């Protein structure tokens, strides 16, 4: 299962300058601060699917689920729990 650290690492490597990543925390407002945008949300969903085999539904791709690393990780964890319960 994908955890907060994997999400953090991906966001830092893909979207931040190395000087800024120290300021990023679980509650950083990703959309408001411009760390990610709508295009990055689609990119992130593609990463989740290709690397981790998790397909986020259209409902899960709402902006509020991308507000912070914490919210994004919670969405993924919930998705993973639903996936685990179907197996």
Topology:
Layout (H helix, E strand, L loop, with lengths): L3 H12 L22 H15 L16 H18 L1
Give an account of the 3D structure:
By secondary structure, the chain is mostly helical. It has one domain. It has 3 helices and no strands. The model is unreliable at 81-87 (pLDDT under 50).
Largest sheet: none
- The number of distinct helices, counting runs of at least 4 residues, comes to 3
Helix content: 40-55%
Strand content: under 5%
Name the structural class: mainly alpha
User: Termini, distance in Å?
Assistant: 14 Å
Number of beta-strand segments: 0
Task: Tell me the series of helices and strands, N- to C-terminal.
Answer: HHH
Count of structural domains: 1
> What average pLDDT do the residues reach?
80
pLDDT < 50 runs, ≥5 residues: 81-87
The global form is globular
Rg estimate, integer Å: 12 Å
């Amino acid at each position: 299962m994908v955890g907060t650290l994997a999400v953090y690492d991906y966001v830092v490597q893909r979207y931040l300058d190395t000087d800024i990543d120290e300021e990023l925390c679980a509650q950083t407002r990703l959309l408001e601060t411009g760390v990610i945008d709508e295009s990055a949300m689609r990119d992130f969903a593609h990463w989740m699917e290709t690397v981790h085999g998790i397909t986020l539904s259209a409902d899960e791709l709402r902006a509020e689920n991308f507000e912070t690393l914490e919210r994004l990780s919670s969405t993924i964890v919930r998705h993973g729990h639903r996936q685990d319960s179907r197996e």
